[in-house]
Amino acid sequence: MNKGQLVDKIAEDAGLTKKQATAALEAVMGAVKGALKEGDKVSLVGFGTWSSVHRAERMGVDPQNPKGPKRKYPAKNVVKFKAGKDLESSVNS
Which of 2, 21, 24, 80 could join 11 via S-S bond, C-beta 3.0 to 4.6 A? Predict the structure, then answer.
């Protein structure tokens, strides 16, 4: 499912116009992005938790040249998602 299909599904299920559904989805995504940028976690009980963690600088193999010299990968923040029990069980049932 892509973003357009998700907007269509939200509009249909919530009885909204596509414009309203797009605005709602953008608001949710903006709020999640903003919280993660500030270092906060975003938890939706039953669905899952997004968090931002710092990954330290490291040495590693370049996947395009695995036999070549190791390269330095810079430090960065990465987003992690841990699925909630309800989401896990609905996917595995």
Answer: 21
**Neighbour tally for 49: CB within 10 Å:** 14
Q: Where are the beta strands (DSSP E) in 1-93?
A: 42-44, 48-55, 58-60, 71-73, 76-83
CATH number at residue 50: 4.10.520.10
The whole-angstrom separation of Cα 11 and Cα 41 is: 27
Per-residue pLDDT of 9-48, as tens digits, reads 999 999 999 999 999 999 999 999 999 999 999 999 999 9
- Domain that includes residue 13, residue range: 1-40
> Structure pTM?
0.79
CB 37 within 8 A of CB 51: no
